[in-house]
Specification:
Elements: E1 5-9, H1 14-25, E2 31-34, H2 42-47, E3 56-59, E4 74-77, H3 79-89, H4 100-125, H5 131-144, H6 159-177, H7 186-194, H8 200-210, H9 213-218, H10 221-231
Parallel strand pairs: 1-2
Antiparallel strand pairs: 1-3, 3-4
Helix pairs in contact: 1-3, 1-6, 4-5, 4-6, 6-7
């Protein structure tokens, strides 16, 4: 019998989504607990993650109420750290390839995603980053994609794919709805630019990730779109 694993998450958190995608793709049994980010329970910081952020997991110990996790369970936080933990815990899952070169490529892809795609895209969405930096990041990540495979690295879904997929899902919303604190119309413009032949390889890869059952199961596009509409009410014309 496997050890209990509880994932503390929130559906608007792309970092939570990374971990849940990895769990599903690895076919790992887990329990999900939604943390109210806007009214965090006091027990969460004291018993799960002192920083108070999601995602976090408890692993091992008795199978107890998620609101009262056992002191015997390990508490692990930060999405990329949790991804590494899952790959170590389930070495046959493919989350990290066994080949050292491919493992390095996965880690590089994650690093580039975090710095060159996530950060510029989320800054742009909040009206704090530039349009050009988003395109540069996408072009950079496209350069890492290999021909002849549907995945970021090798021929199997890995942590690299889990890491970038939540950003791809949010990119889709931004380009199809123009929702964000950037100037009106820039989301649509980004979408049109990404339809060009220059980004064909990225577009094919992104669509493959968006079509996966794991993403459809974890990504509530309607909920997130509604959240964007309520958050980004003041726009620059």
């Amino acid at each position: 019998m496997s050890e209990q694993l509880t994932l503390y998450l929130h559906k608007i958190s792309p970092y939570s989504a990374k971990v849940e995608l990895a769990l599903l793709e690895a076919n790992v049994p887990y329990r999900a607990y939604q943390v109210d980010l806007f009214n965090k329970p006091e027990w969460f910081a004291s018993k799960v993650n002192p920083v108070g952020k999601v995602p976090a997991v408890t692993y091992g110990g008795p199978n107890v109420d998620p609101e009262d996790p056992s002191p015997l369970s390990a508490k692990i936080a930060e999405s990329n750290v949790i991804l590494e933990f899952l790959a170590d815990l389930y070495p046959d899952s493919g989350l990290l390839p066994k080949d050292p070169v491919l493992r390095a490529k996965v880690r590089l892809f994650i690093d580039v995603t975090t710095k060159q795609v996530e950060a510029p895209l989320y800054d742009f969405t909040r009206g704090q980053g530039s349009y050009d930096n988003v395109l540069k990041g996408i072009e950079f990540i496209q350069g890492l994609l290999e021909e002849g495979t549907d995945f970021a690295v090798g021929d199997h879904y890995s942590n690299a794919d889990a890491c970038i997929s939540p950003a791809l899902a949010r990119l889709k919303i931004i380009t199809e709805t123009d929702l964000g604190k950037f100037p009106v119309g820039m989301g649509y413009k980004l979408g049109e630019e990404l339809k060009g032949p220059k980004f064909a390889k990225f577009r094919k890869y992104a669509q493959g990730m968006l079509d996966r059952p794991s993403l459809k199961q974890t990504h509530d596009e309607e909920y997130l779109t509604t959240f964007f509409k309520t958050r980004f009410t003041e726009r620059v014309q």
